[in-house]
Amino acid sequence: MNLTWHIVKKDFLRLRLALALWVALMVGQFILSYEILHVVDADATILRLTVKSLDYMQNVLFGLQLLLCCLLVAALIQEDPLVGQETWWVTRPISGARLLGAKLLGLVLFFWVLPVVVTLPWWLYSGLDSRALPGAMVQLMSGQAVLTLLALVIAVLSANAARFVVVILLLIFAWMCFFIILVAHSSQTGSWGGGQTRALVEVVLAVVGIGVVVVHQYLTRRSTHSWMIFSAGFILILAVAAYWPWDWSNWTTWRSSEPPALASVTVTPGTVAFTKLGSNEDPSLVRMDLELRYANLPADYELSTGRITGTLMWPDGMKRTGSGWIQSYPTSTAWRIMGLKAPAGVTPEKWREVMQDRGDIAMSLIPRSFAAKLRQQAPVLDGRVELTAYQGEMVANAPLREGARGGHSGYHVQIMGIERLENGGLVLNTAESFPILASEIFSLVVFPGHFVGPPSRYVLCSQDRTKFVQLQSHAETYTMTKSVMVVRQSFGCDARQLANPAEPNWLDRAELLKVAYWPVGALVRSAHSDGLVEKDFRPGKWLKPEILLRQSTNAPAAPPPKS
Amino acid sequence: MNIIETHNLTRRFGRTEAVHALDLAVPEGSVFALLGPNGAGKSTTIKVLMDLLRPTAGDARVLGVDSRRLGPREREQIGYVSENQQLPVWMTLRQYLDYCRPFYPRWDRDLEQTLLGRFDLPEDRKLKHLSRGMLMKAALLSSLAYRPRLLVLDEPFSGLDPLVRDEFVRGVLEVSELGEWSVFISSHEIEEVERLCDWIAVLDEGRLQFAESTEALLGRFRRVEVTLQGGAANLGSPPPGWLELERTGDLVRLIATQYGPETERACRERFPTGAFAVQAMTLREIFIALARAGRNARKGAAA
Q: How far apart are alpha carbons B170 and B293 in whole angstroms?
């Protein structure tokens, strides 16, 4: 171990200046993120431009960090190269296994642990607590692991930095060619679960392949063989990406336990509506919105529909079985604020009123002919719905005045500006930071840039908790800085929403609340409807029904679809 | 016991055969030189011995271990200096020695200091700022300070000026007197090798020409001059063991590769009236004669 450590110290001595530069880039990113959170300007346009500029610079620094990190990994490995006939270490009493151990130790210390140490003050400043810190650490280290492992496998196969860069460019080129040629000719279906399974298999194959190549190269230094293993793995991953047919998401996503509080929750399909698609979409398809009603859902929980599997059966004997992941949105915006209950002490009367109307609209694309059939005859639906459960929590509350701040659980919100519009409306400018959930790690690794975050809402609330106004976002800048999301946002509401005849001056003592919904488990419920009927949710927006067989009498008003 | 052995060792690069069926035995305690012109396969042989290259066929054993299985235990007993070795040149000499030292349980600090003084090396200068001669001496120092059983030198004199060469050779000679070390050296710098070696092998185009002790080699090679008296004599084709048989006027010259009473008798039979003069040859002369003969043989075969 002493000799392994001896090699690590040598590598640190060699890379110390470059590592210092890398750390400086990280610190620069923190400084810019700090600026994004604190910049103020009376002119909203200038403020937005300033925030955008800072965000752009922050992204440039992040890109440089990634680039430098790759080059540093290559430098670490090629300090004792594995390719070439004049390698110094081979003629010294240093075994390949020991060198591999030293390089892996260096990799972990320099590129996994060091960023965590450097980022720790930023996390603490951002208010990450003991619940959020481990997730942020794991997330940062996983991101670094992906980057460093990819760089590692190329570095062990190339003799110097120039070849390292050339090989990376060639691989990127090969990957692009693959997407153009292979994927265009593949027959795989694009279900979300299948994509998730495919991505997981690719990640596992990549990690195993990288491990085999690296260990083989260190123990044998037979570059030709290592390249053959690497190429075989690369082609295998490409083949999986192009032709993987199976969907194992049932095994992965829905294995989590069901929260006991949700044991009695039931799901009932309501009505359906059809929406025409945009001009760029397939004209043979329409969007079907299926209303799902929830019963016995505790007040501080929320559900969102994941996948629905079901069979539609018509009286004439026709059947259609379908399955797919479905984007959903709640039937009522009011119950988005249910998390206010416990912390803010909403009145029982208000709470009952809010809780009456709960459900989801599950969306999917179907053929027009199918929609026409459904309009002619109401089919019976027997299905199964997979749902994700969230528990609401008020993560920030601050009095409605400039400079006020509040938050906990890693969430921090500060009101940077308040503007009353001439038409009586209100615009708020806020600065916000919050940790990215550990549960997002997989999404971030597999789908970089596809950040969802926990569902959350801003609400204006009167002091007596009788008036709630949900704010609409006008403009926002999201910047992810080492597992902390930095957000500058403008919210607004119109005069009609603010009207409160009971207390006209309620805004003077109002509070700004933020509610976040934490994923707490998953449910699977059967969904049965004796007759699935179409409802004209909103004339002009929805497809006008040609035949209305039955009109629901107690269906709730439909919300506007998500933009 | 042989400290290095190769059996039918062959190494190809594509269609080019750099080393062909090499059988070599280096006795322990010897200073063994592997000579040959550029491209003869000397460095390839050494790289196979050091496991920097894998043999295409055959095998090599170093310190009794297959070269492909040389581990840290064997490496602790082997010193290796090569003209092309990629040293960590960003280090100062002091850092370099500090880095090397822990890997060798038998590292001798006193010998390190002695060699530092003898080679006159600046400890605080980075290796990349050292002259080529200093760099080679630094590499030699780092390969001698742990008193290896086997010192392997691959073209150590290339590009060195005469003064540095002399220091280098002196260093190896003086140090080799300190213990029972074996030295395996590849070079085409014959004068330096002659001062060092007690065994010599010659490679040409990857094939071993011969391998024997320097004493025996110098003893069997002789330049013979025959001054012809009283008329012409037919040179004819040279018998086996004669090289460079030529005549200039009355003077006939030849090189006898197996000089002995048989050689003298053969000369007298061919040149009965001649006056003979026999001279010992230097290693350089022997090497050049052999190289020339090999080249002529190849030309003849090609024709």
A: 33
- In this predicted model, what pLDDT tens digit does every residue of A323-372 receive, in sequence order? 555 555 544 443 444 444 433 455 556 655 555 556 777 777 777 777 78
Q: What is the pLDDT of residue A339?
A: 41
Chain A partners of B99 at a C-beta cutoff of 8 Å? 6, 10
Q: Is A93's CB within 8 Å of B104's CB?
A: yes
Instruction: Tell me the chain B residues in contact with residue A95 when contact means C-beta distances shorter than 8 Å.
Output: 71-72
Q: Which residues contact A158 (CB under 8 A, 6 or more apart)?
A: A74, A78, A83, A164, A166, A167
| Å between A109 CA and nearest CA of chain B | 20
Q: Name chain A contacts of B50, Cβ cutoff 8 Å.
A: 90-91
Select from A8, A15, A85 the residue whose CB has the most chain B CBs within 10 Å, as the one to mutate to test that interface.
A85
In this predicted complex, what is the ipTM?
0.86
**Quick one: DSSP state of residue A343?**
I
Bin A254: left if φ > 0, else alpha if -120 < ψ < 50, else beta. alpha
Q: Are residues B185 and B131 in the same domain?
A: yes
Q: Are B232 and B208 part of one and the same domain?
A: no
User: In this structure, is residue B27 part of a structural domain?
Assistant: yes
Provide the β-strand partners of residue A475. Answer: A490
Q: Does residue B262 share a domain with residue B176? A: no
Inside any domain, residue A559: yes
Position A188 scores a pLDDT of: 52
Are B184 and B237 found together in one domain?
no
Nearest chain B Cα to A221, which residue? B52
B75/A85 touch (CB, cutoff 8 Å), yes or no: no
Q: Which amino acid is at A163?
A: R
Residue B293 lies in a domain: no
- Taking CB atoms and an 8 Å cutoff, what residues of chain B touch A90? 50-52
CA distance A127 to A434: 8
Q: Each residue's pLDDT tens digit in chain B (303 positions)?
A: 789 999 999 999 988 899 999 999 999 888 899 988 888 899 999 999 999 999 999 999 999 999 999 999 999 999 999 988 889 999 999 999 999 999 999 999 998 998 898 888 999 999 999 988 889 889 989 998 998 999 999 988 877 788 888 888 877 777 666 667 889 999 877 877 887 888 999 888 889 988 888 888 888 899 988 888 766 667 777 777 888 888 888 888 889 888 888 888 888 888 877 888 888 998 888 888 887 887 777 777 776
Residues of A in contact with B75 (CB under 8 A): 91-94
How many residue contacts between A and B have a Cβ separation below 8 Å? 54
Domain of residue B171, residue span? 2-217
B51 contacts A6? CB cut-off 8 A: no
Q: Are residues A183 and A326 in the same domain?
A: no
The answer to whether B52 touches A65, Cβ cutoff 8 Å, is no
How do beta strands A405-406 and A412-420 pair? antiparallel
Is A475's pLDDT higher than 80? no
Write down the H helix ranges in A246-403.
Answer: 249-252, 348-355, 368-376
CA dihedral (B121, B127, B130, B133) positive or negative: positive
Kindly state whether residues B127 and B7 are assigned to the same domain. Answer: yes
Residues A112 and A37 in one domain: yes
Q: Which of A108-122, A479-493, B72-86 has the highest mean pLDDT?
A: A108-122
Asked if the structure places residue A307 within a domain, the reply is yes
Number of domains in chain B: 2
Kindly report the length of chain B.
303
Instruction: Reduce the DSSP state of residue A548 to 3 states and report it.
Output: coil
| Cα dist from A159 to A82, A154, A156, A174, B43, whole Å | 7, 10, 8, 21, 20
Residues A200 and A335 in one domain: no
Domain that holds residue A186: 2-191
- B68 and B122 belong to one structural domain: yes
